[in-house]
Each structure stands twice: as structure tokens, then as C-alpha cells.
Amino acid sequence: MPWSPPTGTSRRWWVIAGVTFCILALLYTFQSSWYLFSLKDAEAGAVIQIEPEVCKTSTVETQLATLAEREPWMVPSTSLNSGSPTPNARDNLRNGSHYITGLATAGFTNEFIAYVNMIYLGVLSQRIPIIPPFVPQSHVSAGAGILPFSHIYNLSNLRNALKHPVLEWSDVKTLIPLSSSPTSPPPAAAEHFGCWSVRQQSAPSPNRVPRTEQVLNLDLVFTRVPPMAYYSSSNPGDPHTKFSALAALIWPDHAHPASRNLRLMEQQGERTFANNHGESEGDKEVWKGGPPDEQLACFDFLYWMTSGVEGYEIERRWSLAWNGVGTHLTFTDELVEMTKGYLRRALKLQEGSVLPPMITVHIRRGDFGYHCKQGRKPPCFAPISKYRDLAKKIQDQIFETQKIRVTTVYVASDERDLSFWQEIESFGWTYLNHTTERTTERLGEWYPLLIDKIALSLGVGFVGTSASTFSILNARRVEDWNGGITDYVNPLED
């Protein structure tokens, strides 16, 4: 059943009133201009013109109202009480509407996967997803600040594809900055919400993300999902939960009976909550917690999700969450154009020129050096020559199937060893030098990662590192967006 907006006639009256007002303004302008035509300036013969500025504003509002009427999922305010964020989320959530949100704590790509899964679960359960911003984790320092999801991904494109509303927390409530000066006014009291934890049954505590809770000014307590939600309920260490079971647990107004009368994972005294200034709540009354909220279903970390077929489904070409949601999360035009500028400079092309077709390559190093076959000692990286050979194979396939001769190869990697990049240069391959570009100094800590990720997605062919979610998702983008050919180097194969 597709999502439908709240009923009412207010938006139709808004459209009618806007159009009527615009017509009256134009008639008034025409009459005034005709009268003033005879009052020419005696010296210059100038004619005074009146621009109906109010009509321009009214036209924009009318267009927005029309869009909200015809395609309500495209306009966030149609899913909320207010057209702007409020201090408390509950004041902005509409009666009769149901929502879903989630936290994420991992590397950037795995956090993205958790949010893709959350959005997909929202569509399944007829709930409106609310996406948090990215907060600094292991990949950037605490000083990097928060990064809105819509700064990277085109949510208008996603909404249009899903025909379903998708919100950000900044649409719903006023967010709290991660850093504030001692003179900053204290934030309002944190809102209390009961949430679900999908952490494996052997883990005693939920996957908390304190920085996200701080930014959203939320005080969360968690209840573990019942055994029916797990892919392998008899295995306490299995982290996977099933989309269908979670949808049943949070189905609006008619949740599965197993969702009731469950114990909290953390009892009073086991939780601590710090305010925005990093101070304990001290003598303030501690919320004892409550069951998972019915209007806003919230989860801790929805990374290990499955349809029930197998684990790690996001890595499969048939992944329901990727094909239903992830493929529609294209990058914003602004970031794509910025990235193309980086590539033009690296390739020594003129500004504004068309980029040549490229093979893009992601070589995962870092912790993958410990992925070793039995009997071998780390580091166990695949030789770079394997990536070169596979890139050559894809070049030949593209020529055979499309008659395009691709000679440009772009590489991204987390390797910092200079000899590695010298070998890359010896192949005649290109990479972005963020030190020379001063990317972090000019744009911030998030941007080297974002620009590399977007550059990799622009290939007509792609070579990645097997088992790296960073590589896997980029392969999907090249396949889905560019019709490209992709393959992987497996470091465990000789």
C-alpha cells in the first residue's frame, strides 16, 4: 500500500488563494503601468515600470504547494506538523503518522549501509524514515563536525524513486552542535525514547552512539528484539536480523504480539547521560526507561540485515536493500561537479572539459593486511600487478562489447607508503593528491573520503578489493549508473 498524505483541504485553498492573489497583482500592475505610461519624464522620456515582486514570491509558494498536493513525499513538511524544525521532535511528529530512525557506529560505508537498511525497513513497515547526520567516528576526528546526509546524497532523487517520504533529523528538530563554548546556552532537556536493539543475543548491551544521541538531544533506552527477529535464533553470536520480522514488530497499530512485555537491556543506574557540555546530569531525576516507542520506531545499528536467505546480503547483486534503496542514493550535483574538477586537474585537462572514459580502481590496504591464508604472516596484501592485470582485462571487455578504448585509469587507496604510489605512477595511472590539493585544510576532514568515493563511481569499469564493502558498493554504482563492467581482486587467492 503506497504512502498517502494526511487528508484535508488546507493545501488546496493555499493553491487557489496563491493563484487568485497572483492574478489580482498582475491586473493591478497592468492598470498602474497604463496610467503611468502618460506620466513620462519631461527630460528623459522614461516610463515608470512596476515589478510585481510579491507575485514572484507567491508563485514559488504556489509551486511548492502544488508539489505538496500532487507528490507529497517530495516535500518534507507534509510529513510533519511544522514547516521548520522544532525544539522537540514529538511536537513535530504528526498524529496518525509513524516514523522510523536508527543509529550507526562503524566506518563510513558501513554506516551508510545501516541507513540504507533503515530506509528499506521503513518502506516495508509503512513508516517514514528519519536519517541522522553522520557524526565523527574512527574515520575522522571529533573536530570534523557533523555531516548532513543530504549534503552527500540526493534525497530528492530517492523520494522520487520510492514515492515515499524520507526525512532528516534536521527537518524534525533543532540539532545540537557537537562543540559549544562555555557561554553557549544550555540545550533543552533531552527527549526520552524507547528503542529496539538488534545486537546479537550474546551481547549484554546495545550499540550506543553517544555523539549521535548528543547531536539529536535524545536520551534512549533499549529493549532487545525477541528471538523471532534473528536469522539464526539458536546461535547467540549471530548478528543478523530479518527485515520481515522487524517490520512485523513495528507494524503501525498492529504490531506482532512478540513485541510486548519485554525487559529493558539496561536497568536504572546502568545508564549515564551527559549534557551538551559533557557534564553528568548529576542530581537530576534519571529516566527509568520505557518500552519501544510506537510512533517513532528506533533501532541501534541496522547493519547486519537479511531477507532471511543468507547473511551479509548487502554484498550480493540481488540485495533487496541495495536494489530497493541504495541504487537510488546518487551523489549531489555539487559534489559530483567538485570531484570532476579534481579529476580534470589530476589529468591536466582544461577547466570544464569532458572527462575521458575511465577504469576506476579501489585498492583496500590497512587492516586488510591481516586477512591472511593459513600459514602466512601479515601483511598479506595482493600484489598491485593483480589489479593492473584485471584492469587490462576489463579494458579489453569494454572494447569488445562497446568499441570504446579506455586508456585512463584512476586509483583510490588508503595506503600511505610512498613506494606504493610510485608503483601506481609507473603504470601510467592517475590518483588524487589531497595533500597537494589541501583538501582537508580547504574543505574539511570529510572531503578526501567523499571525493575519492565519488570519483570511483564515475568509471565505465571498476576493479575493487574482494570483501571490502567500500569496493562492493562502488561496483554497484558503476554497474547501475554507468552500465559498467566490474571485478574484484581477492587478496586470499594466489
Protein architecture, described:
The protein is of the alpha/beta class and 494 residues long. The chain contains 16 helices and twelve strands. The chain has helices at residues 10-37, 53-70, 108-124, 149-152, 155-162, 169-172, 210-216, 243-249, 320-324, 333-346, 384-402, 418-426, 434-437, 439-443, 447-456, 469-482; strands at residues 99-103, 128-131, 167-168, 191-197, 218-224, 241-242, 296-301, 305-306, 358-363, 408-413, 461-465, 485-489. The strands form four sheets. The protein has a four-stranded parallel sheet with strand order 3-2-1-7. Helix 1 (10-37) packs antiparallel against helix 2. The longest helix is centred in the first third of the chain and has 28 residues, at 10-37. The protein is globular, with a radius of gyration of 27 Å. It starts with 9 loop residues before the first helix and ends in a 5-residue tail after the last strand.
Radius of gyration: 27 Å
Shape: globular
| CA-CA gap between termini | 51 Å
Structural class call reads alpha/beta
Overall number of strands = 12
Largest sheet: 4 strands, parallel
The SSE string, one letter per element, is HHEHEHHEHEHEEHEEHHEHEHHHHEHE
Order of strands across the main sheet: 3-2-1-7
Number of H/I helices: 16
User: Average pLDDT across residues?
Assistant: 87
How much of the polypeptide forms β-strand, as a percent range? 5-15%
Helix content: 25-40%
pLDDT below 50 for ≥5 consecutive residues: which ranges?
7-17, 19-54, 272-284
